[in-house]
Input
Amino acid sequence: MKLQYLGHSCFRIISEMGTTVVTDPYKSSMVGFEMANVRCDVVTVSHHHADHDCTDNIAGNPPIVDEQISCAADDIAVQSFATFHDAERGAKRGANLVFAFVVDGLRIVHMGDIGCFDEEIARRIFACDVLMIPVGGTFTVDAQGAKQWVDSVQPKIVVPMHYRTAEHSFAIDGADKFVAMFPQKDVVMGGDSLVLDDQPQNDRTKVVVLQRFYE
Output
């Protein structure tokens, strides 16, 4: 399984067989930088805001999954769970979908723009192999809220997303507050991809900070 970071909350998940899913593609002019042009078999959308549902840079016309569902995209199993974009049960920013994938025997979870903690969802995704979670606050959970999810879910690897970088036009926090909550030895500053051939064997959650993929 290969997880490639396309920036903001967008990732490309590639199975060993070559099946490809892109999560939450963004409108480049809204986020502040250009998303790479990519191909995929399926697009998942956690909610319909332009920084999460824009397919301008995706080649072809792949199907879009934007509802609560349990299905398969060839060898990748896809399941989504209804959640909220804010701490007021969607009253401020609406609904959000959490997507859970099974890829090459690995459980990969994308939290979308999760805005609050949900014990039932945490139970459903408990002990996943990779958790992609927003950490920038303002529009999503902040660093402390993201840490609550990590402590409850206990993923093998957590990949922060939806945080401010030098390129962003968003007024949100960077990843530093979240990363600082973990021992330095458990933090890896990675490249633009995470490649896993087998289930991670680490006893404690490892934080992997990925760089944006450029064409």
